[in-house]
Amino acid sequence: MKMQLGSIAHARSGDKGDLVNIGVIAYRAEDYEVLLREVTAERVKAHFADRIEGSVERFELPNIGALNFVCRQALMGGGTLSLLSDAQGKSFGGGILSMEIEA
Amino acid sequence: MIRIGCGQGFWGDSSEAPVRLVEDGPLDYLALDYLAEVTMSILQKQKKENPAFGYARDFPALMERIQSCGVKVIANAGGVNPLGCAEEIRRRCPQLKVAVVLGDDILDRVDEFPLLNIDTGEALSNVREHVLSANAYIGAFPLAEALKTGADVVVTGRCADAALVLAPMIFEFGWGETDWDLLAAGITAGHIVECGAQCTGGNCLADWKTIPDLARIGYPIVEAEADGTFVITKHIGSGGRVSLGSVKEQLVYEVGDPRAYYTPDVIADFTSVTLVEDGADRVKVTGAHGLPRPEMLKASISYHWGWKAAGTLVYGPPMAAEKARRGAAIVNERCELLGLKFDRTVTEVFGEEWAMLRMAVRASERGPVERWTREMIPLVLNGPPGATGYGDGRPKAHQVVAYWPALLPRTAVATRLEVLG
Questions:
Q1: d(CA B135, CA B415)
Q2: Which residue of B lies nearest to A67 if distances are taken between CA atoms?
């Protein structure tokens, strides 16, 4: 069944320089498997194709049913250099939840 | 068990939060994190203008409000002038004993190390003449030493944020420098609470609409045990919510590889911890695992990069977004006609029926940025129809202070302690 990621997971994003990290967390432990299968680094990069200029790397936190995505060159220089409204990458967490997944 | 509250997630966070934490329930320690990466450069600028400044000046005022609470306070409010900060606290609260941890400031010593940029590999010498501040991140052990003096307040400059929370655990429980799992537990606790209300329901996506009473949101408290287990909670009756969701979101916040969270005292493994609900607004954390501390310390260096400016206009219907996009194109063409050169520009259009146009530019020189600030607002009269929302006048050019992350050997940084009172 197709659905939006936000129906099974929540998320929070933040910055370190020009890098954005997005933590995606399954509400229910059993849905962690769905995250592992559906939410790949490639799909995250494609989801934010117009915002992430660098690579996306995925890390796993099975202990809390979460994935962490490290997205490079995502803030036009980052910090004080960034010209974006969202210079700290706060909106990526909410933004990823509209990704369509098969669950 | 000791209770450590965190009442400040950045300089500018709620000024009432630390007062509520010490007044609304039992607490042993209050940790306050004032320093973001760019804060040091702001403070350095203030110190240049007045050598008595250079610290978070609202912190001594806060200490005056809470001086009789009996809670030990640990804060990195000292910025680039921790001694000046301590002296001002003593002036306002003469009965308080204040310990100051010094040694993070390496501005006079930046030529002793290569200080290669962690992200780009560039040598600091490329921007050497523009450097404004340079500080090494220090760990929790010097702060724990400061607590041993019996101080009521510990003031420091640049330290690892989570060290403010780990320090009282080291002091109270006698943890050693190679107790990696215990230190990792303290760092994990510190990491979860260092952004204040972000673990008690603030900025929380998990079931956000049902989080109660954010107007009275409680700031976090760590109930820490000597064996490294701890509970994240908040005062009973305060607003917000401590849940598995709120704590998990903060555990992954601003993290790279969760198996290796680097701090001066230990490398913590966030994939090792177990989180369980432990009653209402209580989350218990166990099982923290740590790896030996790194040989290098992180340094935070700020330097003058150049100039930037950003401006906004608002367009009403009909076809607001299209008018906004056309307006932006006109500004860009006029800048070309004027021969203005920028390092980078950005145009954002938010909304459809009503639309906000936001434009921004940056350049190493001030001239083109200043000139650009005069090109956007004229659109109201000479661009697409119906532009408004220009109440703040023309955009202002701001100096861009950029951040240069680097590493230096641990052995190069020696901290020292001064006690006042």
A1: 12
A2: B252
Give yes or no for a contact between B155 and B75, defined as CB atoms under 8 angstroms apart.
Answer: yes
Q: Could you tell me if B104 and B415 are in contact, meaning their C-beta atoms sit under 8 angstroms apart?
A: yes
Contact call for B360 and A12, based on CB within 8 A: no
pTM for this one?
Answer: 0.96
C-alpha distances in angstroms, A68 versus A44, A73, B172, B205? 11, 16, 34, 16
- Residues on chain A bordering chain B, Cβ-to-Cβ distance under 8 angstroms: 10-12, 14-19, 21, 23, 25, 27, 59-66, 68, 70, 76-77, 79-81, 83-85, 90, 93-94, 97
pLDDT one-digit tens code per residue, B359-406: 999 999 999 999 999 999 999 999 999 999 998 889 999 999 998 999
CATH, domain B304-404, list 3.30.950.30, 3.30.70.1130, 3.30.720.10, 1.10.260.40: 3.30.70.1130
Q: What is the domain partition of chain B in residue ranges?
A: 2-300+407-420, 304-404
pLDDT in tens, A19-62: 999 999 999 999 999 999 999 999 999 999 999 999 999 999 99
Question: Is A11 in Cβ contact with B255 (below 8 Å)?
Answer: no
